[in-house]
Amino acid sequence: PDTFALARNYEDILNARRQGKIASLIGVEGGHSIENSMANLHRLFDLGARYMTLTHSDTLMWADSATDQSKHDGLNVFGEAVVREMNALGMIVDLSHVSEATMHDALDVSVAPVMFSHSSARTVADHVRNVPDSVLKRMSDNGGIVMVNFFSGFVDPKAAQIMSEMFNVSRELRKKYELDDEYNAAMARWRAANPYPPGTIHDVIDHIDHMVKIAGINHVGIGSDYDGVSKLPLGLEDVSTYPRITQLLLERGYSRRAITKILSGNMMRVIKHVEQVANQSEQQKN
């Protein structure tokens, strides 16, 4: 409690900053958590969740994942309803992990800014977990944000190629080995035979550059994913390295105002706008 403060809205974040604390928001990584129930979505929101990633690694009954087989060519009717309900609640729609078709369907439906909480640029490193230019180009109209992931397998071009193959191998091995111990041993052997480079902080800055070029300076942020990855670029080993991002952005000609947007300003704007959309929706009901 001396370091962190639970935040449920924009004002809570500002208050945490005034107290010198780190504002912490509750998020749900994967729409499987609602168990195909709109009532469960409401329960999560009531418990404090303020954003939800529509899918994680597996395709759901209502939304396609980037790393699984497509069943709906994006969102089905229920999936579209989930996005609309999240807009009405004031819960940010997170599109990291979803398929390209799901990205576009969500952007077609959402009247509030969306978020890619931890995704990089597919043009720079070709992996399905990254965001294609066709989606980056839509961020300006939507008002959303794409937050660069630091995972080596998504930022280094060679590593992304190897990681893409690994996802396919993993699914084939899962079919072959029913027992977890056998599957894990087989995956460990494959990883040992197929090492991938860590990349460097400069690769991450390349992703930021590209996203700024295509989506615009108002739609890029930082989504490190420190707690969810197995390898990190040289120079970005932990949160103490964040000032290096600022330094490299300065060296590439970014202004102080632009850097502030990338580091926090754009995300704060998205949070505030999502709340405004929800408030307007509530007023229309009344």
Report the span from N to C terminus. Answer: 38 Å
The biggest sheet, with number of strands, parallel, antiparallel or mixed sense and barrel status, is: 3 strands, parallel
Strand order of the largest sheet: 3-4-5
**Number of helix segments?**
12
> Which structural class fits the helix and strand makeup?
mainly alpha
Assigned CATH class of the largest domain: Alpha Beta
Shape: globular
Total individual domains: 3
What is the tally of beta strands? Answer: 8
- For this structure, the CATH topology of the largest domain is TIM Barrel
Helix content: 40-55%
Q: Going by CATH, what is the homologous superfamily of the largest domain? A: Metal-dependent hydrolases
What would CATH call the architecture of the largest domain? Alpha-Beta Barrel
**Mean pLDDT over all positions:** 97
Strand content: 5-15%
Rg on CA atoms, Å: 19 Å
Oligomer: single chain
